[in-house]
Amino acid sequence: MGAPGDDKPTEEDRPSTKRQTHKPELPVDIPIRPAAGPIAVEDDTTAAPQVLHPCKTCGRSFRAESLAKHSANCIKVFHSKRKAFKVEVLSKEDAASLRLAQRSAPASTPTKSPGRAVPKWRQDRERLRRAMKTTTASGDARSPGAAIDDGRVPCPHCARMFSAMAADRHIPICLKTKHRPSTLVRKHTAY
């Protein structure tokens, strides 16, 4: 820092506010590979350098045993041309009828087993979709929909809705609670 009684840091002690960018130095001695011909590459697993041979079709370099496998597939896969699609083969009428058949073909629907109950989420989904259709078709968002059975049971005492199992538990308890005589409320006296 500065003087013995001085608490302010000097210019040398303060960190620099300028951004320091670190640029890595590029090695100057990068070998440039020749356009064609074998390349010597040192492999970490072996001490002897391996020679890479270029593919005659695509120019990529491979080891001798890999080049044999590659060259068999290179021409077949990478340099074969696809057959041209001939539009003349399909007349306009045929193309239109194909498009119409594809659009009107029903999507494959899974067969429903008659004994299974429809899950609640599916009922809710169908109810929402029907409501959306009716509002968009009629143009009135407040149009009444059809009464939908949602599978819930109303409590005769409090008019709340419950599933069948929950209603079996709730209704006897609600009967006792609703028909219980009201108790007198004690007066609160000031202390």
Description of the structure:
The chain has 191 residues and is mainly alpha-helical. It has a domain at 39-77. The chain contains four helices and five strands, in the order βββαααββα. It has helices at residues 64-78, 92-104, 120-138, 164-178, and strands at residues 39-41, 50-54, 61-62, 153-154, 161-162. The strands form two sheets. A three-stranded antiparallel β-sheet has the order 1-2-3. It is flat, with a radius of gyration of 42 Å. It comes from Plasmodiophora brassicae. InterPro entries: ZC2HC1A/B-like, Znf_C2HC_C3H.
Put simply, the count of helices is: 4
Binned strand content: 5-15%
The beta-strand count equals 5
Give the overall form. Answer: flat
Question: Which features would summarize this protein structure in a list?
Answer:
191 residues; mainly alpha; two-stranded antiparallel ribbon; 4 helices
Give the topology, please.
Elements: E1 39-41, E2 50-54, E3 61-62, H1 64-78, H2 92-104, H3 120-138, E4 153-154, E5 161-162, H4 164-178
Brief characterization of the structure:
With 191 residues, the protein is mainly α. It is 32% helix and 7% strand. The mean pLDDT is 74.
